Amino acid sequence: MAPSLSLLLICLLALYTPVTSKKECGRPSLGDGMDLEGLQRVYSPGDAVLLSCKRGYTPTSGSRTIICTASGHWTKSRLKCSTKSCSFPETLDHGDMELVDIVYQSTINYTCHEGYILQGASTIECLYDGQWSDPPPKCTPVICGLPPIPKYGKIVYDTKFTGNITVFGFGGTYECLPPLVLIGNERGSCSANGDWTEPPECKMVTCSAPTDIHNGFMTIHDKREYGFKETVRYGCNVDYVLDGPVEIECLKTGDWSIKPACRAPCKVGITRGRILYNERTFWIKDFEPNKILHAEVISVYCMNKEKKCGYAVSTQCIDGKLKIPECFEEPSDTLDDNSLPAEIAQC
């Protein structure tokens, strides 16, 4: 080979070797929230790239520059991009808010309770700059006018107010001029639909003359009509027990409240044996008069034949009827009193 040709090949080889030994870098892989805009597909060794975060993300401290090395790899960066947060919103009076988070692109949905109207945005979003898209809304009460007043009646408001506008929940108590009676809602209020609740009526109410009760009496004998809330008292004859209220009242419906009843006494229906009454024992022949009042309790004695012992069983007088327990056996006159269930050892 000619010397000139050999020298030319050596020179070309020297120029080619350092260029082909260097490797290019591809587009760097970025972490969450980092900005991809402006990045090339291929970089040469020695090229530097300044990393940045997308809108809505905040860079942490650390190196933001990476360099393409001769091996075709990027140097490491400590840059991390954290999602920006918005301030936690205040609670909504008379309403509710629904949220999952308060970071960038999070949303809050607002609703108001019944009787309140949403003033403002029903949904707000956390923006890239850490601010909410809108201020929190407010829940304002529904507005009503003045309440309807029944004829011959009035309303006493819960609190004083001026003007001719009321708001949801505001209310008062209705009253009728005597002797009229209030029929309907005793209270009224501004409701969620912007109207007042249905007002009552003021009417004259009377009840017919009260009637007697069996085995009892009324404390007054004025056979007349009675007005609303007038009362009549009852009592019972001797040995009868009043079951129910002593007093009845004329109701706003024009009816009397429930009358009491007089319950009859009972006779203890045995001829021999002992009974237990008011914590005392009596031979039935000595129990005079043979009578207990309604709802009172006595006990008779029964025999446990297997154990040969006696035991007391209670029974109650119910309006003249006293059931003797089935276990009680009427002893014959020939038996010794000391062998009766009341006199032997008790079970």
Automatic annotation (TrEMBL):
Q: Which InterPro entries match?
A: Compl-Cell_Adhes-Reg, Sushi/SCR/CCP_sf, Sushi_2, Sushi_SCR_CCP_dom
Q: List the disulfide bonds.
A: 25-68, 112-139, 207-250
Domain of life where this protein originates: Eukaryota
Q: Which Gene3D superfamilies match?
A: Complement Module, domain 1
In its UniProt record, a GO molecular function of this protein is: heparin binding
Primary residence: secreted
- Note the PROSITE patterns from the entry: SUSHI
Protein localization: Secreted
Please state every residue range assigned to the domain named Sushi. Answer: 23-83, 84-141, 142-204, 205-264
GO CC, any one term: extracellular region
UniProt signal peptide: 1-21
Keywords of the record, alphabetical order, are: Disulfide bond, Glycoprotein, Heparin-binding, Repeat, Secreted, Signal, Sushi
Functionally, this protein is described as follows: Binds to various kinds of negatively charged substances such as heparin, phospholipids, and dextran sulfate. May prevent activation of the intrinsic blood coagulation cascade by binding to phospholipids on the surface of damaged cells.
Name under which the protein is recorded: Beta-2-glycoprotein 1
